[in-house]
């Protein structure tokens, strides 16, 4: 007797892991990928009564006749110390950079510490001193803070929470929703250094050369970009700025494409990747475009003034290696694609969770 054909009803298909019904927090919820977005959009925003809108690293608030930017962040990186920096550098630089990406110049920071019982005071002192020096070098004050201690085993040595406030200059309007077709996409320098620096220490892997974190404050670079645009005749030429931290460059490009409902096209060969980072990622099966950075930015700029903005970036040490990597198009809105070395294109999409957890 011949076998009867099997009929499959697509309505009966079930995802093996319903992302919004896992019931528990997983590491991927903190990774800056799809799970992070779902957590924010489906849990936090409804709970806080948020009105929605594009995702930003800081909120812009009208105060009197001006505007301020306000941001908050938490740092749980492990290990606490790594080539070129420690958790203190990240806490200061990361908070400043979130403000800078809204066009704000930072004014003051706060610092809260959750300390595990048994943490060596020498370790805490070294990190606090680092934060103080980093803030001083950036021209910002740490004005208040808080400390809590939890029992041994209730935390992983030390967590830091920060908040930052900055002033947005008149006429500056930067946001992910402002990217538009024709914009030039500029990257301020090589990608992947921070994530690989963390991984090399955490896993004890020797890549043949030391890879150091790129952690650095970016507010002076953003100020130079805005100044260069203004001198070229259009102070609003810088439409969007983002620092590609968790999820790397890919996460930033996709988030901006979605927020502005535009397409983003980049030339993969134009993205600078240090040899050591490329080798490490090849060995570990990672995509360097999705590895975290802590001292780089990606900007979407009006094409008529892109050369002036790029020249201004080259005048700052943080932007000395800035380069054009792509453009914004009207096609495939909400998507980012990369042109490969073989002349083909591929869709670039965020990871579900994250390639490297706890890198900031």
CATH A-level architecture of the largest domain: Alpha-Beta Complex
Low-confidence stretches: 1-20
Number of DSSP strands? Answer: 14
Largest sheet features:
7 strands, mixed
CATH topology annotation of the largest domain: Phosphoribosyl-aminoimidazole Synthetase, Chain A, domain 2
The portion of residues forming beta strands comes to 15-25%
Instruction: Tell me, rounded to a whole number, the average pLDDT.
Output: 88
* Helical segment count: 8
Succession of helices and strands: HEEEEHEHEEEHHEHEHEHEEE
Structure class: alpha+beta
Could you give the order of strands across the largest sheet? Answer: 9-11-8-12-10-13-14
Describe the global form: globular
**What is the CA–CA distance across the termini?**
63 Å
Number of individual domains: 2
Helix content: 25-40%
Q: How much is the radius of gyration in Å?
A: 21 Å
CATH superfamily of the largest domain: PurM-like C-terminal domain
Give the CATH level 1 class of the largest domain: Alpha Beta
């Amino acid at each position: 007797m011949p076998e009867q054909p099997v009929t499959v009803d697509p309505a009966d298909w079930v995802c093996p892991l319903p992302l919004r019904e896992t019931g528990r927090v997983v590491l991927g919820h903190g990774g800056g990928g799809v799970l992070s977005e779902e957590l924010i959009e489906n849990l936090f925003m409804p709970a806080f009564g948020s009105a929605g809108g594009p995702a930003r690293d800081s909120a812009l608030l009208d105060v009197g006749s001006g505007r301020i930017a306000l941001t908050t962040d938490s740092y749980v990186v492990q290990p606490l110390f790594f080539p070129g920096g420690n958790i203190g550098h990240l806490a200061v630089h990361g908070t400043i950079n979130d403000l800078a990406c809204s066009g704000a110049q930072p004014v003051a920071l706060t610092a809260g510490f959750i300390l595990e019982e048994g943490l060596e005071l020498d370790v805490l002192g070294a990190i606090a001193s680092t934060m103080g020096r980093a803030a001083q070098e950036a021209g910002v004050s740490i004005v208040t803070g808080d400390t809590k201690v939890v029992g041994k085993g209730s935390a992983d040595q030390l967590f830091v929470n920060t908040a930052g406030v900055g002033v947005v200059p008149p006429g500056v309007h930067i946001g992910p929703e402002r990217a538009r077709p024709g914009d030039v996409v500029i990257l301020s320098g090589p990608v992947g250094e921070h994530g690989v620096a963390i991984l090399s220490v955490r896993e004890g892997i020797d890549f043949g050369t030391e890879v150091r974190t790129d952690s650095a404050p970016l507010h002076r670079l953003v100020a130079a970009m805005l100044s260069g645009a203004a001198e070229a005749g259009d102070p609003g030429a810088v439409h969007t700025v983002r620092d590609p931290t968790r999820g790397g460059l890919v996460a930033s490009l996709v988030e901006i494409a979605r927020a502005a409902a535009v397409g983003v096209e980049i030339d993969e060969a134009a993205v600078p990747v240090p040899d050591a980072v490329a080798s490490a990622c090849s060995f570990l099966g990672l995509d360097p475009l999705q590895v975290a950075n802590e001292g780089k930015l990606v900007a979407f700029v009006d094409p008529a003034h892109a050369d002036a903005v790029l020249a201004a970036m080259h005048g700052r040490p943080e932007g000395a290696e800035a380069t054009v990597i792509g453009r914004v198009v009207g096609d495939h809105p909400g998507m980012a694609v990369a042109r490969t070395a073989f002349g083909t294109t591929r869709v670039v999409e965020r990871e579900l969770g994250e390639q490297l957890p706890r890198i900031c």
